[in-house]
Amino acid sequence: MEFAHRSTKSETMDDGPVGRAVLRDLARVNSLTSAFVPIRRFVRRAGAEGTLLDVACGYGDLLRSLSRRFPRLALSGIDLHVAAARAASPPAIELLEGDVFLLDRNFDLIVSSQFAHHLDDAGIIRFLGWLEAHAERGWFICDLHRHPVPHRLIGLIAAALRLDPVIAHDGAISVERGFVRGDWERYATVAGIPGIAIRWWLFRWGVARLK
Ligand SMILES: C[S@@+](CC[C@H](N)C(=O)[O-])C[C@H]1O[C@@H](n2cnc3c(N)ncnc32)[C@H](O)[C@@H]1O
Fold first, then answer.
1. How many helices (H) and strands (E) would you count in the chain?
2. Mind listing the pLDDT tens digit for each residue in 56-109?
3. What radius of gyration, in Å, describes the C-alpha atoms of the chain?
4. Cα–chain-centroid distance for residue 135?
5. pLDDT of the residue at 4
6. DSSP structure string for 132-145
7. How close is the Cα of 18 to the center of ligand 1, in Å?
8. Which end of the chain is more exposed for a tag (fewer CB within 10 A), N or C?
């Protein structure tokens, strides 16, 4: 496996809605790997109040984690498929079904976890522009580090916890489609957005912008 460039392979998840069991297993991996720690830190730093949108909210586990800790946030999520998130979330969390690029509504804060790697480079530049236009106070992207360690680890975790085979398959491709620091530096330059902070956290990149 070669990690010099982002892979163009596609994930099972990109072919349509995946079952609830897959999303539940992905939530277990998120929890085990402390995936939401940098996002919660960002939210705290940004004041933890007002409206917040989670882009590509999947099973809604990030939104539920935020709702337990930050009661002054009005939480919304958007995803192409929200049935599983809706079934698992309290009614106070607003769930919008559709393509984020078609959503024209502003929020104080916008976050997204493990969505950017589903986009090609041009899509990421477009997403940065969308975030900049729709986040009043700031936005945060958390996504995977393209590196052999998480690539190997995802298969080991999936086998040890007997997770759905889609997790090992899509997880490895997700890492291959992931990022190195230079990718984010280049995207920020091309998008022409100032003041972007790029920080590493346990084989993930946190890309933050506070206005
Ligand atoms: C790997 S999952 C990440 C789910 C969740 N954010 C997490 O961290 O576990 C990627 C999600 O992106 C969603 N998605 C892909 N393209 C999208 C788009 N254009 N607009 C909204 N959601 C999208 C998929 O439906 C899927 O739920």
1. 8, 7
2. 999 999 999 999 999 999 999 999 999 999 999 999 999 999 999 999 999 999
3. 16
4. 16
5. 93
6. HHHEEEEEEEEEEB
7. 11
8. N
Question: Is the distance from the beta carbon of residue 96 to the nearest atom of ligand 1 less than 6 Å?
Answer: no
Residue 56, ligand 1, Cβ within 6 A: yes
Q: Is the Cβ atom of 57 under 6 angstroms away from ligand 1?
A: yes
Q: How far is the CA of 175 from the centre of ligand 1 (A)?
A: 15
Q: In the sheet that 135-144 helps form, which strands lie side by side, from edge to edge?
A: 94-97, 73-79, 50-55, 107-113, 135-144, 204-210, 197-201
Which residue has a Cα nearest atom 18 of ligand 1?
99
Q: What are the extents of the domains in the chain?
A: 12-210
* DSSP code, position 12: G
Mean pLDDT for all residues in the chain: 96
* CB of 80 sitting under 6 A from ligand 1: yes
Candidate CATH numbers 3.40.50.1820, 3.40.50.150, 3.30.365.10, 3.40.50.880; the one for domain 12-210: 3.40.50.150
Q: In this model, does residue 19 exceed pLDDT 90?
A: no
Structure-token pair, residue 159? 């086998």
Give residue 79 CA to ligand 1 midpoint distance, Å: 6
Helix (H, G, I), strand (E, B) or coil at 95: strand
